[in-house]
Amino acid sequence: MINSMYGLFGFFELHPIISCSLSIFTFIVFVNMFNLIDGIDGLASGISILAFTFFIIVSFLSDNYLSLIISVAGIGSLLPFLYYNVFSVKKVFLGDNGSLLLGTLLIYLTLDFLSFNTMGILFITNNKILILMSLFSYPLVDTIRIFIVRILRKKSPFSADKNHIHHHLLRLGFSHKKASTFVVIYTFSITNFSLLFMKQNINFSFVILLILAVIIVCLPTLLTKNDSGSISFIKTLM
After folding, report:
1. Cβ–Cβ contacts within 10 Å for residue 2, how many?
2. What is the pTM of this model?
3. What total of structural domains would you count in the chain?
4. Phi and psi at residue 231, in whole multiples of 5°?
5. To which H or E segment does residue 109 belong?
6. Which of 62, 106, 123, 232 is the most exposed, having the fewest neighbouring CB atoms within 10 Å of its CB?
């Protein structure tokens, strides 16, 4: 469970009731956000491969062998899937079962990482919650954004539409492969960038990383492709 916020928003150790409630809420958010971003080929699986790779590294360095086995199994199942989902003529898809399973495995690894003793890993301190927020910043920001937009438009936050970030990337002329690659590169970059803040004040670091994530992730919604093929800013926000 999430037993501590490590000083984020001024909170440290959590009351057991709050800890349990927050862990359940986080579990529900994780499972559903991976289902929501599974809209183009290679996106959910690409982010998941990055996440499993991260958990392989930290699990190995902290001698957490159960999480290591789960992470290796996740990579082993996703690599052949990624080939048939992105590069093969005969397509296979995650579907609800696949995306929900990925969300379940990754939230387990996330909660286990937060509660497991990782003090022996040199590049990780008590700011490790920031690494996780950066690692999953794309689905988190996209899910929160899409819920806010739907509510402002007086629609159900769970109603389907084509207003996700990856849909805007497709609108700008990206193919499924290029859009997924863009998001994976962003995820890899901001996760590595968050390591620079491991010894900084957690709230200061959170604000910087949040602003950076929101700007980069939401940027495609502010761009449009002209008839000439060039990309420019939208004159009026949609």
Report:
1. 21
2. 0.90
3. 1
4. -105, 130
5. helix 95-115
6. 232
Other beta carbons less than 10 A from residue 18's beta carbon: 14
Give domain status of residue 3, yes or no.
Answer: no
Burial bucket for residue 230 (CB in 10 Å: 0-12, 13-18, 19+): exposed
Q: Which domain holds residue 28?
A: 8-233
pLDDT tens for 52-104 read 999 999 999 888 899 999 999 999 999 999 999 999 888 899 988 999 999 99
Residue 27: left if φ>0, alpha if ψ -120 to 50, beta else—which one?
Answer: alpha
The answer to whether residues 96 and 35 touch, using CB atoms and an 8 Å cutoff, is yes
Which residues touch 79 (CB under 8 Å, ≥6 apart)?
49
pLDDT tens, residue by residue, 190-208: 999 998 888 889 999 999 9
Q: Phi, psi (5° rounding) for residue 43?
A: -75, -60
Contact call for residues 127 and 198 (beta carbons, < 8 A): yes
In a domain, 49, yes or no: yes
Q: Considering the domain boundaries, does residue 238 fall inside one? A: no
